[in-house]
Amino acid sequence: MSDTGTERQEAASDWPKIRTVGVDGMLVSFGDRLSEPANRAALAFRAALDRAAPEGVEETSTSLVSAYVRFNPVHRDHAGLRADLDALVQERDWYEADLPQGRREWRIPTVFGTDLAPQLDEAAEAAGMTAEEAIASISETVVRVQTIGFAPGQPYLGELAPEWDIPRQKALTERIPEGALAVAIRQLVLFSVSTPTGWRHVGQTGFRLFRPEAETPFVLRPGDAVRFEPVSRERFEAMKDDPDGGARAKELT
User: Fold this and answer.
1) Which candidate, 12, 40, 7, 42, places its Cα nearest to that of 27?
2) How many Å apart are CA 86 and CA 90, to the nearest integer?
3) Three-state DSSP class for 121?
4) Nearest-angstrom CA–CA distance, 170 and 213
5) Residues 161-189: what's their mean pLDDT?
């Protein structure tokens, strides 16, 4: 059985589960850990839930493997909403669902290593690669935005090859800049703000992810495909005035 097939079988065993979250929330989970099928199911289910618009639902969102629903308890009780969610869960095999419509493929210029991203060598060694092999491995992999979290508009992207199943640091880096690309546990994080982190900083982009002044403040969406293209320091500096940092996108669906 293929890796994806095995992951799909593991993800579907005893799942999905519908659980109560406080007085006004419900959570539909498709696994107890990240996998491609469970992430795909969560994204597809949330999109279907938005289309169905059950009575009383005020907000939806996704994490890595779950869809969250916030509702108005004045107009809807948990039992009624649970019944609606269960009916939607039973409609199809969500692990085989197509990803939501409106996805795009982004190509984001990235400086790997140098003083701009000083932990490339350290991360490459942890993955058993040279720095050049690490750059090739990351830049040749098309990753997907699995969820947005931790900071406004900040994407978690994956998955990388199994060699990248490296742990986060035991100590924090005091400050990582906006636009930093960091790696751990087969995922990439592209930082939308400057912040402390335990992830290793391997690349630097000029992409501004969080734009509070815009009609759509978060640039990337869950489900978007992303490729980080290596560029020289000189080209990176030349694109500094561009809020997209030279990134470009095309519609996928």
Assistant:
1) 42
2) 6
3) helix
4) 36
5) 96
The pTM (predicted TM-score) of the whole model is 0.90
Pairing of strands 225-230, 104-112: parallel
Reply yes or no on whether the pLDDT at 2 is more than 60: no
pLDDT tens digits, residue range 213-251? 999 999 999 999 999 999 999 999 999 889 899 999 999
Q: Which amino acid is at 71?
A: F
Q: Where are the beta strands (DSSP E) in the chain?
A: 17-21, 25-29, 57-62, 66-71, 104-112, 143-148, 155-158, 173-176, 180-184, 187-190, 195-197, 200-204, 225-230, 248-251
Q: Specify the pairing of strand 25-29 against strand 195-197.
A: unpaired
Residue type, 27: L
- Distance between CA atoms of 41 and 66, rounded to whole angstroms? 8
Are the C-beta atoms of 64 and 34 separated by less than 8 Å? yes
Q: Read out DSSP for 11-62?
A: HHTT--EEEEETTTEEEEES-SS--HHHHHHHHHHHHHHHHH--TTEEEEEE
The pLDDT of residue 3 is above 70: no
Largest Cα–Cα distance in the chain?
59
